[in-house]
Amino acid sequence: HHLIIECSEPDFFPSMNRIAANILNVEMVSGPDVIALFREERAFWSRTRMAITDEQASGLFGELFFMLEYFPTQLSDLINERWSGSDYSDKDFSWDDLQVEVKTAMSPQQPITHTVSSLHQLQEDERPLVMFSLVAHPDEGGSRALHELVDAVLSGLSGDPSTRASFTDTLEDLGYVLHHPDMEQFRYTLTHGDGEFYAVTDDFPRLTIEDNPDDTRINIGSYQIRLANVEKLRMEPSKPATIQGILAEYIRVSKP
Hints:
- The chain has helices at 13-25, 31-40, 42-45, 54-70, 75-82, 146-156, 161-173, 243-254, and strands at 93-94, 99-105, 113-116, 129-135, 137-138, 144-145, 187-189, 196-199, 223-226, 234-235.
- By secondary structure, the protein is α+β, with helices and mostly antiparallel strands.
- The strands form three sheets. A five-stranded mixed sheet has the order 1-2-4-8-10.
- A hairpin with a 4-residue loop joins strand 1 and strand 2.
- The protein is elongated, with a radius of gyration of 21 Å.
- The chain starts with 12 loop residues before the first helix and ends with a helix.
């Protein structure tokens, strides 16, 4: 057996040398055992700078939850072609005939409130736009965890090393540190179930670029929406979902 462990960051060399010596002393060659050892090394991880915020973690949770719950067999296509990931584009997921914006609220209060980052975010781009709304309430005893969703995606990509590497790169860009023990703090209770889909049409609460005033002294940045009186726009796609099924639901609820 051969085990190769590399470290390119000088700040980590002392801790890395000590961990390597420990691995050699106990003749550890199992990959899972080595990973478990690193996860337990608080001194090692304490040198890693945390970049992801609570809001960013909940947003990432919602996007991964959407992937795994509704398109579990299409992870490679989602990550390579559909997910905006760390590009910070206006929409989270884009297909030729559909776009989906995932919004994750942390507060369980009714009506559910979401933050919209720009006037473009809920503006259709010449195709139907759907919002997936999820409430993930931070809860240290919650049954759902961000790191577990990350592990589930990685497991689903076990046969696709290229996409797996792309996914881990995106996580790093987003500030998520793979296998960092502090990532385990992001646990949630889904107070409103597995989320809801809404057709973003003229009756949906939103501001778009058409609402931008001509006065250059006024800049409308992010704003909040409350999901009140939107029941008629609620969609009920199957699980797992298909693009055709979501579009059919969009057409159904959009009829006058």
